[in-house]
Automatic annotation (TrEMBL):
Highest rank taxon of the organism: Bacteria
Record-given protein name: Peptidyl-prolyl cis-trans isomerase
Keyword Lyase: no
Family to which the UniProt record says this protein belongs: Belongs to the FKBP-type PPIase family.
Signal sequence, start to end: 1-25
Length: 243
């Protein structure tokens, strides 16, 4: 899942200042070049100019997704070459502040819509999943299925456990996996999401379970990096050891 970029207009402004501050332009810069070809054989000045421009745009493209590139170039050139601004400083600051406020409000509304959609989808998934063979449901709403029972000891909430796991969204998207990293992880069981704290205490060492975790005992309305608000999660977990 794509992580949401929270860069603001101020970051774009800072990057523009960086370009200006690092430049040693002598005022002989050619006007509006429509296309360029930069290679390893280009001059240092050409490569510096291209690199700063590319990095500035790439790092801030999510902050201003509807940027008018023609107007950006005109404003950049006017400021860089010392021409009079078409807008006053106060007007420009007000424009940027208003734009940023509108984007923040849109972001909040989008997250609220996502939260409602994910909650409904999660509830529908869990209701259907609970009827499947082998799926058990606890009082908290946690659902689990025993793949391998295990024969060792069960952890307490205060124990440290070593596990291998894969985490998925209900659409099958894998968002985290110790298998992909090639090594298990260790953590205190009482310092993870509530669904894990509860679920792993049902397991024994050597066991392998699949957990279906409602949002309210996962990451809830806040979500997490790569996980939208109110997402129901699916984890396959192997309990390797209790320490």
């Amino acid at each position: 899942m794509k992580k949401i970029n929270t860069l603001t207009i101020s970051a774009l402004a800072s990057a523009m200042l960086l370009v200006t501050g690092c430049s040693t332009n002598n005022g002989n810069q050619e006007s509006a070049v429509k296309s360029v070809s930069v290679t390893e054989q280009s001059s240092a000045t050409e490569k510096v100019g291209y690199s700063l421009g590319y990095m500035m745009a790439e790092g801030n493209k999510d902050a201003v997704q509807d940027l008018d590139l023609d107007m950006f170039e005109q404003g950049f050139r006017d400021g860089y070459e010392g021409n009079d601004s078409a807008l006053t400083q106060e007007q420009m600051e007000e424009v940027l502040m208003t734009y940023q406020k509108e984007q923040e409000e849109k972001f909040v509304q989008d997250m609220q819509n996502k939260a409602e959609e994910n909650k409904a989808a999660g509830e529908a998934f869990l209701a259907k999943n609970a009827k499947k063979e082998g799926v058990q449901v606890t009082d908290s709403g946690l659902q689990y299925k025993v793949i391998e029972a295990g024969t060792g000891k069960s952890p307490k909430a205060t124990d440290i456990v070593e596990v291998n796991y894969e985490g998925k969204l209900i659409d099958g998207t894998v968002f985290d996996s110790s298998y992909e990293r090639g090594e298990p992880i260790e953590f205190p069981l009482n310092q993870v999401i509530a669904g894990w704290t509860e679920g792993l205490q049902l397991m024994k060492e050597g066991g392998k379970y699949e957990f279906y975790i409602p949002a309210d005992i996962a990451y809830g309305e806040a979500g997490n990096a790569g996980i939208e608000p109110n997402s129901t999660l699916i984890f396959t977990v192997e309990l390797l050891s209790v320490k």
